[in-house]
């Protein structure tokens, strides 16, 4: 039943998702039944060798083309079911449709003699069992182009089958060593280990090159060098810091002579959380009541800060999320300790606190009388000019009697004897470095004692009725 299904089905049999290669026609299920009986089934092995698609070299250096037989060829060779009839390396091979074969500069041909001018510089590094690598030393500018491996293999058995392949490699022979390529992650982050790979599509044991990293200083560990498959690579593993952002990381290619021949650089883009956060007073060092005050939260951050959190005396200010904190008419109650926390998508930082000291003139200025309710002639009268608050402190008090300036002093207390000339209306003005404020008036009425011990306001004297 299974053979019948296979025989009548003409659907394409998908061996893989890769496109069909030249030299092996589309295989249908019906054809597959018959091809499975052919010796070796060689059309499944296209191409027959594994080589790089392209290589880079330069004049004076050497060219090493790594080449390995694919397992579909290698295993039958080992079991002697396949035989390599011909192996030829060409420079710039061209197909001749009349001869139905390739022509060009022959660099190596198995079991055949080659021009001495070529053989002196060409080494076939492989064999007819596993390896088909080729090396060409002391390269010349004329040896730029396409290198091709012509391989002819036959199968043994009752029905011998012959298969021919031409595998081509593009080789760019430059006048000087090319700049190496640097591959880095799409994003660096501080304190997270990362790798940078410097590579060049070149490797030749007889002309080894060196790749050296420059730019990160003594903090950089020794890189790991790796060669093979036609490439030379140097892998640098390091842990970036925020100071590395914007640093030029350079990879230098040096020839066997030890001198740098070419280099390439990348600028490190290191993402890091906010650093060096601080609060600055934008509008000046002195803050006075009623003025506009702006606090700015600054820091270093990459990427830029996306959110700011403000605090006063350790308490969160929920309505404030911008970089600047504005006070249009600042009030003394808004004095305090302020700090901020800038944040980006990497992390958050906290600034030291800054003190906002709102200065204002003296407030709630008033006079208090430090005496008994009645002032008798001869008593000591003490008036105190008290201030509710003042920032900075009061530096001068000016006393007025009956609206005339009487005295300027640094003391808030005025003391005088209760005599006739001291009766009157008193007020004081308290002044600091910002401005001044005046109290309301208070009356001082000295009461005089008359004959018989009576006390009458407005009169004084001993045993007489004299006005005070």
What would you say this structure looks like, in words?
With 468 residues, the chain is mainly beta. It folds into five domains: 1-33, no CATH class; 38-174, Immunoglobulins (Immunoglobulin-like), CATH 2.60.40.10; 181-268, Immunoglobulins (Immunoglobulin-like, Sandwich); 274-356, Immunoglobulin-like (Sandwich); 361-466, Immunoglobulins (Immunoglobulin-like). Helices cover 6% and strands 47% of the residues. The protein has a five-stranded mixed beta sheet. Strands 32, 33, 35, 36 and 37 form a five-stranded antiparallel beta sheet that branches. A hairpin with a 2-residue loop joins strand 15 and strand 16 (231-238). The protein starts with a helix and ends with a strand.
Structural features:
single chain; 468 residues; mainly beta; Immunoglobulin-like; 5 domains; 4 helices; 47% strand
Structural class: mainly beta
For the record, what CATH class of the largest domain applies? Mainly Beta
> What is the approximate shape?
rod-shaped
Q: Which stretches are poorly predicted, pLDDT < 50 over at least 5 residues?
A: 1-41, 457-468
The N- and C-terminal alpha carbons lie at a distance of 145 Å
The third-level CATH topology of the largest domain is Immunoglobulin-like
Query: How would you write the strand order of the largest sheet?
Result: 2-10-9-5-6
């Amino acid at each position: 039943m299974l053979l019948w299904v296979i025989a009548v089905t003409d659907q394409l049999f998908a061996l893989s998702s890769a496109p069909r290669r030249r030299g092996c026609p589309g295989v249908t299920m019906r054809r597959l039944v018959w091809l499975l009986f052919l010796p070796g089934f060689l059309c499944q092995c296209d191409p027959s060798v594994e080589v790089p698609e392209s290589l880079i070299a330069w004049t004076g250096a050497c060219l090493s083309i790594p080449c390995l037989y694919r397992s579909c060829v290698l295993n039958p060779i080992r079991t002697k079911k396949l035989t390599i009839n011909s192996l030829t390396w060409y420079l710039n091979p061209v197909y001749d449709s009349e001869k139905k074969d390739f022509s060009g500069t022959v660099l190596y041909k198995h079991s055949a003699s080659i021009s001495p001018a070529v053989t002196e510089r060409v080494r076939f590094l492989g064999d007819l069992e596993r390896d088909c690598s080729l090396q060409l030393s002391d390269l010349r500018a004329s040896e730029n182009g396409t290198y091709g491996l012509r391989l002819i293999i036959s199968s043994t058995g009752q029905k011998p089958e012959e298969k021919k392949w031409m595998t081509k490699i593009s080789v760019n022979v430059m006048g000087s060593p090319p700049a190496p390529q640097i591959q880095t992650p799409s994003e660096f982050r501080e304190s997270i280990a990362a790798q940078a790979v410097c590579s060049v599509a070149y490797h030749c044991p007889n002309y080894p090159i060196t790749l050296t990293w420059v730019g990160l200083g003594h903090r950089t560990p020794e890189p790991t060098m790796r060669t093979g498959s036609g490439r030379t690579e140097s892998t640098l593993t390091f842990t970036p810091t925020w100071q590395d952002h914007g640093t030029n990381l350079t990879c230098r290619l040096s020839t066997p002579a030890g001198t740098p021949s070419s280099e390439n650089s990348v600028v490190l883009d290191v993402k890091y959380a906010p650093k060096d956060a601080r609060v600055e007073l934008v509008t000046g060092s002195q803050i006075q009541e009623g003025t506009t005050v702006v606090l700015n939260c600054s820091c270093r951050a990459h990427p830029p800060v996306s959110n700011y959190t403000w605090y006063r005396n350790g308490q969160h200010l929920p309505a404030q999320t911008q970089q600047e904190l504005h006070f249009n008419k600042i009030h003394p109650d808004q004095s305090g300790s302020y700090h901020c926390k800038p944040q980006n998508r990497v992390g958050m930082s906290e600034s030291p606190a800054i003190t906002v000291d709102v200065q204002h003139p003296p407030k709630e200025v008033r006079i208090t009388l430090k005496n008994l309710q009645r002032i008798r002639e001869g008593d000591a009268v003490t008036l105190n000019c008290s201030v509710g608050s003042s920032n900075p402190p009061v530096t001068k008090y000016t006393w007025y009697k009956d609206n005339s300036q009487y005295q300027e002093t640094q003391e808030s207390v005025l003391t005088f004897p209760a005599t006739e000339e001291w009766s009157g209306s008193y007020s004081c003005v308290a002044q600091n470095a910002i401005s001044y404020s005046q109290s309301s008036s208070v009356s001082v009425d000295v009461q005089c004692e008359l004959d018989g011990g009576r006390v009458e306001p407005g009169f004084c004297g001993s045993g007489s009725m004299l006005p005070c």
